[in-house]
């Protein structure tokens, strides 16, 4: 008998892709997809159950189908349909609590995989250069998706203590990008002009949506020799990109503004529904965030196919040309930098000349 896998959040593209991928796995007997709305994409041969994980009905689904593996993807930063931020928080937090309660009561569940985020580390001026899985954040997220994820991970740790017989794997993903990316950061990078915080050029990491599917599939199975797929792991592509590099590769110019103005712009963009430019995203675009992926490779045994730069390049191709061709934007930035350098040099020369005159 193969595995019986339940996946939450299958109405989103990522959940649908994972279900179709798992169906091809010879070790999997059945796949059950759960979401509050019916997905617009096909789920292959998977069985779809329209259910709200915030309700006790999820416990009956686990019991009726003798589910032994649960993949919880329904922790997200963007609403699906109507409801807005309130509905998202309820699904993220209350839905996770209800799902974990059902898993705790089920004698069949043996493996639990949780989609989390590196946003749990926050973004602050005093942050370390690189976060490891055991690093305590200098400033905990104060709201939004990041705070939801911190609460979710706390409930998951409690579940792991109560059910030590269940293998629990928490995957903290860096910013997920790719041709089908659906996230506030993807929406931000799709703006024709990118508002940035004056005086800051943060370091960013990305993980490709294809790698997300691969590592989630890996976490479903028994660990290979010399690896361990229970615990908490940072998942990101190699390398980092500066926000300025991202804008040039997109061909989208930036508009540096003072931090209070960025906050106002973010509120305005949220109000008109263009993008969810939340306070947590503003902090990310101010201070950045970089995580260590040593445990991902050495303990989990996963090697991403895409680096951070390759992930962003694939995303940029899917968004089409920006206002300026990338090579034109790079040349313009270089020319401005050269002009500023010449002005500084002339200013230094003038000051030196005046100093010599004073000495004379």
What does this structure look like?
The protein is of the alpha/beta class. 44% of the residues lie in helices and 16% in strands. The protein is built from 12 helices and 13 strands. A 7-stranded parallel sheet has the order 3-2-1-4-5-6-11, sandwiched between helices. A two-stranded parallel ribbon has the order 7-10. It has a two-stranded parallel sheet with strand order 8-13. Strand 1, helix 1 and strand 2 form a beta-alpha-beta unit. Helix 3 packs parallel to helix 4. The longest helix has 34 residues. It is globular. The model has no long low-confidence stretch (mean pLDDT 87).
Number of strands: 13
The rounded Rg comes to 23 Å
Q: Regions with pLDDT < 50 over 5+ consecutive residues?
A: none
The run of helices and strands is EHEEHEHEHEEHEEEHEEHEHHHHH
Mean pLDDT: 87
Distance between the termini: 95 Å
Which structural class is indicated by helix and strand composition?
A: alpha/beta
Strand content: 15-25%
- State the major sheet: 7 strands, parallel
Globally, the shape reads globular
Output the number of helix runs. 12
How helical, in percent, are the residues?
Answer: 40-55%
Enumerate the strands of the largest sheet in spatial order, edge to edge or round the barrel.
3-2-1-4-5-6-11
């Amino acid at each position: 008998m193969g595995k019986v896998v339940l996946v939450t959040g299958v109405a989103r593209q990522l959940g649908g892709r994972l279900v179709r991928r798992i169906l091809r796995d010879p070790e999997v007997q059945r796949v059950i997809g759960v979401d509050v709305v019916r997905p617009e994409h096909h789920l292959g041969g998977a069985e779809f159950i329209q259910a709200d994980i915030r309700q006790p009905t999820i416990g009956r689904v686990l019991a009726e189908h003798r589910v032994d593996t649960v993949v919880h993807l329904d922790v997200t930063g963007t609403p699906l349909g109507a409801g807005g931020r309130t509905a998202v928080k309820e699904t993220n937090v209350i839905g996770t609590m209800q799902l974990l309660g059902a898993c705790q009561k089920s004698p069949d569940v043996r493996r639990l995989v949780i989609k989390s985020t590196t946003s749990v580390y926050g973004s602050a001026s005093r942050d370390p250069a690189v976060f490891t899985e055991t690093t305590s954040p200098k400033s905990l997220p104060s709201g939004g998706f990041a705070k939801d994820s911190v609460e979710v991970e706390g409930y998951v740790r409690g579940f792991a203590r109560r059910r030590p017989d269940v293998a629990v794997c928490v995957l903290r993903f860096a910013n997920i990008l790719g041709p089908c990316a659906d996230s506030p950061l993807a929406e931000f990078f799709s703006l024709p002009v990118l508002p940035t915080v004056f005086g800051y050029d943060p370091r960013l990491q990305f993980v490709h949506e294809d790698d997300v599917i691969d590592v989630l599939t890996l976490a479903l199975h028994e660990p290979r020799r010399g690896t361990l797929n229970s615990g908490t792991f940072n998942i990101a592509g190699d390398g980092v990109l500066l926000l300025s590099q991202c804008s040039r590769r997109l061909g989208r110019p930036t508009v540096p503004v003072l931090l209070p103005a960025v906050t106002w712009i973010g509120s305005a963009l949220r109000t008109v529904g263009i993008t969810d430019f939340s306070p947590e995203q503003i902090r990310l675009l101010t201070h950045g965030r970089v995580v260590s992926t040593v445990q991902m490779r050495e303990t989990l045994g996963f090697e991403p196919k895409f680096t951070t730069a390759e992930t962003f390049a694939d995303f940029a191709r899917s968004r089409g040309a920006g206002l300026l061709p990338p090579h034109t934007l790079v040349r313009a930035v270089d020319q401005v930098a050269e002009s500023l350098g010449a002005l500084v040099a002339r200013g230094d020369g003038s000051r030196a000349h005046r100093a010599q005159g004073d000495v004379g």
